Amino acid sequence: MSYLQRQKDAFKSSVQATANKVSAGRNLAPPTPSTPARAASPAPSNASTGSKADNQTEKKRKREPENVVHSQPGQTGYGQHLHTQMHYAVQWLKKDDKTRTLKEILGHLSIPITDPRAKQLSATMRDKRQTAITYTPDPNKTRWDTGVYHFNPKLPVRNKAQLVSYLQTRPDAQGVKVSELKDGFLDVDDAIDDLEQEHKILVHRRKLGPYMVWADDPSLHHDVDPEFNTMWLRTELPSVDDLVRKLQDAGQKPASEDPAKRVKVVKNKDKKKRKARAGGKTTNTHMAHLLKDYSHLKP
User: What pLDDT score does 51 carry?
Assistant: First the structure.
């Protein structure tokens, strides 16, 4: 046996021994019944993604409040605060323009008569310091839930007849703002248009509509013939100078003097020279050399 053959056999035997050791070390114990084999996770699909979205939507639905009663007084829009309920009571009486009892007002506000807020609202409406609602007590009963209530507008005007009467009985000739009339007369704009066409009121308008109104007298209105209007527009009026001279020739004094005789007075724009300061007691003698007058040396 040659030397190379012996080396080859030795190498094979060493490789065989090493392979036996490695295979013996890799033998694992079989899994026990209490430790089940882990299954491979399936690949994601569109169905699994949709189920996740459904689960999130279901969670959001669970967060929403349940058993919400929307017919309670808190959801009617009239509020829980006393001043808010007072405001809605005033607006309802203004629009309704009728005398109402406390029970009717509370029914409009969805407040039970047994609610403590009912007595508070009644005391507020009966308070004399507020001027929006007029309270008329029941002469036969003195309980807090008796009597009637009525809206009290700023001006006693509710219709066209009252508007004309109010303007005619005013002690002064000042106009009345339309905004003040709307406090008790909601449809005053339509009434103003009708009364203006009947020549019973005078109206001053702005971009947003009528602003102020005055009383008018229909008997002072006279229709002018259209032919006369056309003649008047075609007539050429004399100039201001001609009118002044014609009035003077007629022996009448014009309201304004003749513009030709006006003399423009030109004011002297020269500023007055400042007078020299009169001599007085000198108190700053230590600065006499600085205050000495050298104006005579000026060329």
Answer: 56
Q: Please state, for a pLDDT cut of 70, what percent of the chain lies above it.
A: 70
CATH of the domain at 97: 1.10.10
Phi, psi of 26 (to 5 degrees): -90, 0
pTM here? 0.47
Q: What pLDDT does 24 receive?
A: 58
DSSP structural state of residue 202: E
Give the mean model confidence (pLDDT) for residues 149-164. 89
Residues 146, 205, single domain; the answer is: no
Q: Are residues 180 and 228 in the same domain?
A: yes
Domain that holds residue 232: 154-248
Domain shared by 187 and 237, yes or no = yes
Q: Which helix (H) or strand (E) holds 104?
A: helix 102-108
Alpha-carbon distances of 278 from 11, 66, 274, 281, 282, rounded to whole Å = 138, 97, 12, 10, 11
Residue found by looking up tokens 């009169």 in the block: 278
